[in-house]
Amino acid sequence: MIKKAFDPENFRATGHELIDTLADYLTQLQQNPASTLVSKTQSPEQQLDKWENFTSDQDWTGYFKEYLEDSMHLHHPKYMGHQITVPAPISALAALTSDLLNNGMGVYEMGQPSVVMEHLVVQRLAKKMGFNAQAGGFLTSGGTLANLTALLAARRKKASNDVWKTGNHQQMALLVSEQAHYCVERAVRIMGWGDAGVIKVPVDENFRLRTDLLEEYYQQAKAEGKEIIAAVGSACSTATGAYDDLEALGAFCQKYDLWFHVDGAHGGSAVFSDRFRSKVKGIEQADSVIMDFHKTLLVPALATGVVFKDVNDSYNTFAQNAHYLWSNDEDKEWFNLAKRTFETTKFPMGFKIFTVWNHYGDGLLEEMIDTIFGLGVEFGKMIDQHPQFELPVVPECNIVCFRYVDTQENLNALNRRIRQTILDEGKFYLVQTLLNGDTYLRVTLANPATTTQDLEELLEYITQIAQAEVSV
After folding, report:
1. For the whole prediction, is pTM greater than 0.90?
2. CA-to-CA distance for 353 and 118, rounded, in angstroms?
3. What's the CA gap between 66 and 73, in Å, rounded?
4. What are the two backbone dihedrals, phi and then psi, of residue 172, each rounded to the nearest 5 degrees?
5. What is the pLDDT along the chain (472 residues), one digit of tens a residue?
6. In what order do the strands lie in the sheet with 431-435?
7. Measured in whole angstroms, how far is the alpha carbon of residue 65 from the centre of its chain?
8. Which residues pair with 402 in a beta bridge?
9. 103-360 CATH
């Protein structure tokens, strides 16, 4: 069986069939998307029963087609759900290549081209963010891990004692928007700071952190004996896509010698667009920034950049002995990445990014952001002009919240039912969120193939569902 599993000719034949299948799949979604549902909703029990009893009988084409059929179709123009990009086909081929090689490249000698590509990607990203040559960093497995890594660096740099060596001796805390992604609070709890470690600053009517309240919340926390080490800006928030005022946050952090971290997992990619770059004005003041390539920039998950204004800060977080990996633990070697990351077996995510960026250049990435962010702005205008819908906040990127309001019924219950019907029927895919206790429908327009006509059809479709629900 081992010989059969590694047979090059079987791989060649199966690979040809698979690429043909995937190319046909993309063609269908581009030329005739109406022939395919965005998703085919089945219960976990149905899927479990199917795959527990599934046998391919060596029909690999049938096997892959079954997987495709049951999966969520992000390349469908009516996919408008969670914050994840449509991968460019070339990036999928890069992922296939790196998966076959399986070079765990936390140590340079195990992944020489991958390490260098990652370094180049991060240096280019740092330059896009407005940092100078002193900046640097690495890639890691997703925004949650990236935020935790950056905040650990903040703790190492700003805490009054060396927590890495002696443990927590004082209640530390950070300032963050009440609309920030939950992974920031999770990072605080992982670091052992508990409830008291998260100082949530209220937001304004546009769901941006109220920078006018920073002083009050900072002084109150100091009076309670807390050691404030950092403030976190959202670029942008997950629920509404709102961008915090990074310039004001940066100035506040400079005033009190706090670490300034920007969670740019989703909206940090505005740095690639001349049109939308103003959304992240002040990002260059940050001590650390994270950004997910897999959210908006055509690269399969996971692929997250962690950029430090001073690259030296990236080396201190995990300093410890590992003589079996490298001869000198104290050397700041950019090429031995496991010295700076959670991952020691690190997959070559930089290869995927480098392949897209190097092949198509800045132009593709800028066009991507201009297209999907611009579509979000346009959809906001469409909703605002539609009397049957409510727009709680003007969109700043490709995240748009809205709800149907043309009824005397309970709006929260109705919009939840609308979303469930959309999910059950599979013609579109979107999600829902809570804003000030109210339920809103929420789209993330991640597919550049989505058009304003698709969005008009969505509003008409929702109206039909709502009217049918109300008449029952």
Report:
1. yes
2. 8
3. 13
4. -95, 160
5. 999 999 999 999 999 999 999 999 999 999 999 999 999 999 999 999 999 988 867 688 889 999 999 999 999 999 999 999 999 999 999 999 999 999 999 999 999 999 999 999 999 999 999 999 999 999 999 999 999 999 999 999 999 998 888 888 899 999 999 999 999 999 999 999 999 999 999 999 999 999 999 999 999 999 999 999 999 999 999 999 999 999 999 999 999 999 999 999 999 999 999 999 999 999 999 999 999 999 999 999 999 999 999 999 999 888 654 454 545 556 789 999 999 999 999 999 999 999 999 999 999 999 999 999 999 999 999 999 999 999 999 999 999 999 999 999 999 999 999 999 999 999 999 999 999 999 999 999 999 999 999 999 999 999 999 999 987 6
6. 389-390, 399-404, 438-444, 431-435
7. 28
8. 441
9. 3.40.640.10
Rounded distance between C-alpha atoms, residue 399 and residue 383, angstroms: 13
| DSSP state for residue 285 in the 8-state scheme | G
Distance, in Å, from the CA atom of 204 to the CA atom of 201, rounded to the nearest integer, reads 10
Q: Pinpoint the alpha helices (H) of 159-238.
A: 163-166, 182-190, 214-223
User: Rounded distance, CA 80 to CA 175, Å?
Assistant: 32
What is the distance between the alpha carbons of residues 325 and 301, in angstroms, rounded to a whole number?
27
Task: Decide: residue 17, CB within 10 A, 0-12 exposed, 13-18 middle, 19+ buried.
Answer: middle
Side-chain-facing half-sphere of 242: CA atoms under 13 Å: 22
The reply to whether omega before 375 is within 30° of 0 (cis) is no
Question: Which residues make beta-bridge pairs with 232?
Answer: 176, 261
* Dihedral pair phi/psi, residue 183, rounded to 5°: -70, -20
Q: Is 222 helix (H, G, I), strand (E, B) or coil?
A: helix
Length of the chain counted residue by residue: 472
Partner residues linked to 175 by β-bridges:
199, 231
Neighbours of 218 (CB within 10 A): 21
From the list 108, 156, 160, 174, the residue with the least C-alpha distance to 313 is 156
Question: Helices 112-128 and 349-384 sit at what angle, rounded to 10 degrees?
Answer: 30
Strand segments, DSSP code E, in 79-204 are: 136-140, 172-177, 198-201
Parallel, antiparallel or unpaired: strands 304-308 and 227-234: unpaired
Report the alpha-carbon distance of residue 81 to residue 225 in Å, rounded: 43
Cα(148)–Cα(193) distance, integer angstroms: 13
**Placement of tokens 């527990």 in the chain:** 52
Domain residue spans of the chain: 103-360
CB neighbour list of residue 384: distance below 8 Å, 6 or more residues apart: 391, 394
Of 315, 313, 307, nearest to 339 (Cα)?
Answer: 315
